[in-house]
């Protein structure tokens, strides 16, 4: 039986084991979400849907995650974070299993809502655990490792998932993810310690979760990170969900080229995410975020302006896009995680995660409405979507200065 954790861990070896299992859980969670986007052309053809319907398919997961994340804010701080994480991950795996057996578009939409509902609370809990047990001076590095799950999902998960989809059908990647999820649960139970520091009444006087939620939402210092999160998401999720359909329909790539996009993008970001995490700890999270965000404008403009282009050039541009657009998330989340006191961190991260998910879902859906599919299947107005992304990115640079670090 794990002993209750009453103070931050100081044993580096134990920290590494915990960070590893958190990264593994986050990997499966992230892969379940990101695999939808490269499969976009397959879904649009299989279910005979347009860009708006596909945008709804992507956004349904995110919006569900946001809504249930708010519900989770009412009770997540009342339980051991370890058990909360494992129960949520079990529900998430069930939702993913439902996706694998979806016979039509409406059922798949329902399954994505189920998976998203658990996934939203899952992400908030992972970040809360990092905030609770990792000292602030190593938090940027730890966040970078866990955030590198996106890179691993891109390098390993997406190419394997697309290969499975090509060979056995689009359902098989979801089936594989569900099975992996059920297998990793007992490992997580063994590795993770009981995390009850936030429940220590001697350190943090108890109050109702509704009161905690109201305190989280109404506290003046929390408004800056919440608004910042909205523009952080609009900076990426107006572009990302439709990248694969755009590259196939407008740039001239074939479906079998898509794994290379995610492989090389993920391969580089696997290393750069960790490097950016270390830079954030050394030079300041705000400074690193601002620099990366401003530079990220360049690949965004290049991506949305692509026409018929050779694969090597596309790979160069999209890899730079992924390095910078995903890299800015490392200092951003490190700043946000540190913007709240431990006593209400679970509620804060749940609300923040809800804002993150709803914002990304709205961004995807709005982009789907703006994009128009021409008679030759090309997507029109991607440049306009890119303008929204650039504005959001630059405005977030200003908003980042308003975030106050609490510890």
TrEMBL record:
Membrane topology: Multi-pass membrane protein
CDD domains, A to Z: MFS_NepI_like
Any one cellular-component term (Gene Ontology): plasma membrane
Annotated TM spans: 17-40, 52-76, 83-103, 109-130, 142-162, 168-189, 226-248, 260-276, 288-307, 313-334, 354-374, 380-400
A Pfam family annotated for this UniProt entry: MFS_1
Record carries keyword Transmembrane: yes
Keyword check for rRNA-binding: no
Keywords: Cell membrane, Membrane, Transmembrane, Transmembrane helix
Coiled-coil spans in chain: none
InterPro entries named among the record's database cross-references: MFS, MFS_dom, MFS_Efflux_Transporters, MFS_trans_sf
Residues covered by the Major facilitator superfamily (MFS) profile domain: 18-404
Protein location: Cell membrane
GO molecular function: transmembrane transporter activity
Domain of life per record: Bacteria
PANTHER family xrefs: CHLORAMPHENICOL EFFLUX PUMP RV0191, PURINE EFFLUX PUMP PBUE
Name of the protein in its database record: Transporter, major facilitator family protein
Provenance organism: Leptospira terpstrae serovar Hualin str. LT 11-33 = ATCC 700639
Source taxonomy: Bacteria, Pseudomonadati, Spirochaetota, Spirochaetia, Leptospirales
């Amino acid at each position: 039986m794990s002993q209750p954790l009453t103070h931050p861990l100081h044993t580096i070896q134990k920290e590494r084991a915990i960070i590893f299992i958190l990264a593994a859980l986050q990997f499966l969670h992230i892969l379940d979400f990101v695999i939808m986007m490269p499969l976009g052309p397959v879904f649009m053809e299989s279910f005979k849907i347009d860009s708006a319907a596909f945008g709804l398919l992507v956004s349904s997961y995110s919006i569900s995650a946001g809504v249930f994340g708010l519900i989770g804010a009412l009770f997540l701080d009342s339980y051991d974070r370890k058990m909360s994480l494992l129960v949520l991950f079990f529900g998430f795996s069930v939702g993913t299993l439902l996706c694998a057996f979806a016979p039509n578009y409406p059922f798949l939409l329902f399954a994505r809502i189920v998976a998203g509902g658990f996934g939203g609370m899952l992400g908030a809990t992972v970040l809360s655990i990092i905030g609770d047990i990792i000292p602030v001076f190593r938090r940027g590095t730890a966040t970078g490792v866990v955030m590198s799950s996106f890179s691993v999902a891109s390098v390993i998960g997406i190419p394997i998932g697309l290969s499975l989809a090509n060979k056995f059908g689009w359902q098989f990647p979801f089936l594989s993810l569900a099975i992996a999820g059920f297998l990793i649960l007992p490992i997580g139970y063994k590795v993770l310690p009981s995390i009850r520091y936030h429940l220590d009444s001697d350190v943090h006087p108890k109050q109702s979760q509704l009161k905690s939620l109201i305190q989280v939402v109404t506290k003046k210092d929390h408004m800056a990170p919440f608004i910042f999160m909205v523009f952080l998401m609009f900076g990426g999720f107006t572009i990302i969900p439709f990248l694969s359909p755009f590259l196939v329909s407008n740039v001239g790539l074939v479906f079998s080229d898509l794994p290379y996009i995610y492989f090389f993008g993920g391969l580089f970001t696997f290393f750069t995410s960790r490097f950016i995490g270390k830079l954030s700890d050394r030079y300041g999270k705000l400074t690193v975020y601002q620099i990366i965000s401003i530079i990220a404008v360049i690949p965004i403009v290049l991506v949305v302006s692509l026409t018929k282009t050779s694969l090597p050039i596309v790979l160069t541009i999209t890899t730079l896009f992924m390095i910078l657009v995903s890299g800015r998330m490392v200092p951003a989340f490190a700043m946000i995680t540190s913007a709240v006191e431990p006593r209400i961190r679970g509620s804060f991260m749940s609300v923040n995660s809800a804002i993150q998910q709803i914002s990304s879902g709205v961004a995807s859906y709005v982009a789907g409405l703006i994009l128009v599919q021409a008679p030759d299947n090309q997507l029109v107005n991607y440049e306009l979507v890119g303008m929204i992304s650039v504005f959001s990115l630059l405005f977030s640079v200003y908003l980042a200065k308003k975030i106050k670090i609490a510890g």
